[in-house]
Amino acid sequence: MMEQVPGALGTSASLALRLGQTIFSSASLLFMCLDVEFYSYTSFSYLVTIMGLVTPWSVSLALVDAYSVFIKGLPRQPKILLIVIVGDWALSFLSLAAACSTASVTSLLVNVGTSFCPSKLCSRYQLSAAMAFLSWFLSLASTLFNLWLLPSL
Amino acid sequence: MMEQVPGALGTSASLALRLGQTIFSSASLLFMCLDVEFYSYTSFSYLVTIMGLVTPWSVSLALVDAYSVFIKGLPRQPKILLIVIVGDWALSFLSLAAACSTASVTSLLVNVGTSFCPSKLCSRYQLSAAMAFLSWFLSLASTLFNLWLLPSL
Question: What InterPro entries does the record point to (chains A, B) (predicted)?
């Protein structure tokens, strides 16, 4: 009999966390990409790269969770769980770094003046950074829940 | 008989980690503070705030480790260890955020032009960000070593 840790891989709480990550990271990607010359700033390209990694990762784990919740419980293997934990952990650090860089560059651009950043664009950058922060927070939560489960396997 | 995990609180490896954190965080602080108007940029003020927290934290834990190594081994209590882990963990996230913000703002200032940042100042900002990254890395290592010890107590 396996313990059911809420939020660990294969539970409905984990599905909710993954869906949240998917939504926030793709929102961050869209706010930054659509109609914006994001590649002129290093931090913005970095944010796009990282969010482009986080989105497919979250989508695929959300699919695994959905399968496990709605169709058939999958057996948990420590090796797979370890890969998921390490992946989440690395991506959460990377998305924190990307969110911080974007937020600080945006704040600098706002202060320097409107020639670098028309007000409509700047608020989109800020929204994108906020979404990246939320996505970081959720993937950190996933890491911790899975890490909690690991010793019991 | 207590297990000796290298790098956990009270060992000589931990003392080395703490000394490294002290050196890197105070170097980051000095590069940023001395003769620079750091308060005109939000990220730089943030870096100074965080490094001003990391330095006394590392110094005090280095003193605890030095006492424990050279004079008398202190008994390890789970509560104190938990406080140290949580503190290290929070400070490592904060210093990663500060290092990323500083690095990205510096890179932006370098690209925008020399009117915002004479080349001598810019290289100091970069050095400060690099030191903050090293300090982040060492405090993450401390967190992980202590976390490894926690279940055995």
Answer: CASP_dom (IPR006702), CASPL-5 (IPR045009)
Q: Which of A93, A105, A111 sits opposite B104 (nearest CB)?
A: A105
pTM of structure: 0.80
Q: pLDDT tens, A56-78?
A: 999 999 998 898 888 887 777 88
Q: Which of A6, A146, A27 is nearest to A79 (CA)?
A: A146
Q: Is the pLDDT of residue B2 over 60?
A: no
Q: What is the ipTM of this complex?
A: 0.71
User: What residues does each domain of chain B span?
Assistant: 12-147
At B59 the pLDDT is 94
Q: Are A125 and A19 a contacting pair, CB within 8 Å?
A: no
State how far the Cα of B87 lies from the Cα of B89, in Å rounded to an integer.
5
How far is the C-alpha of A94 from the C-alpha of A82, rounded, in Å?
18
Sign of CA dihedral A28, A33, A37, A41: positive
Tell which of B46, B50, B104 to mutate to test the A interface (max A CBs under 10 Å). B104
Taking CB atoms and an 8 Å cut-off, how many pairs form between chains A and B? 57
Distances in Å between the Cα of A39 and the Cα atoms of A34, A43, A47, A102 are 12, 9, 10, 13
